[in-house]
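re: ur question from earlier - yeah i can do the single chain one, its not a big deal. heres the input i used so u can compare w yours
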Amino acid sequence: MRGFLFDLDGTMYTDAGAVPGALEAIGALRSRGIPFRFVTNTTGVETHTPLRVFGGADILEIQHLVRQVVVAEDVAGFLAQVEKEGGPPEDRLRTLILAFVHMIIDELRGTALTMDLSALSPRLLKKVIAKRDRFDRGIRRILREGMASGAFAPGDPKLLTFAILGAINWITRWFDPRGPARSEEIGRVFADYLLAGLRA
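and the output i got, formated as tokens:
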């Protein structure tokens, strides 16, 4: 046995999310020095590249791709939970900011949720984007509620949502896991700062 070839869609992930044990299996191969490659012939890739091959050196790219599928599910589920529990707009937004910072740092390992997802199948890509957009719309709803109640100053909910999510996604540009700040502290500081800028 000289090495392994792994398909992406259906092997590393499915429409339901990451295949259990897939990342662990790849990690085990790499730790033992066993060569492997990832291939896909889905129509989600560029037409001039019908077959995309990822080398073993690019395992982090594959890991981030699979994690994004999982995190998109988690983000949408967490939003639904927060909306179900209710509470003041400021408390709900703080909870979502803290959760998103945690996911960016601890789940995506410092990779923005807007990473290129072209290797996903069209059906799975549509599903991931829909869940990501649902989270975006949920933030906007909370902002509108806060403005209507007087908790937040008047503003454009769409632009403010871009500012909030953009600030959190930018963590990936400077975060160093070797640094002193952990995700809990970063989340608290970001939540305090962003909410302070929204208050009436």
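The chain has one domain: 59-198. not sure if urs matches, ping me
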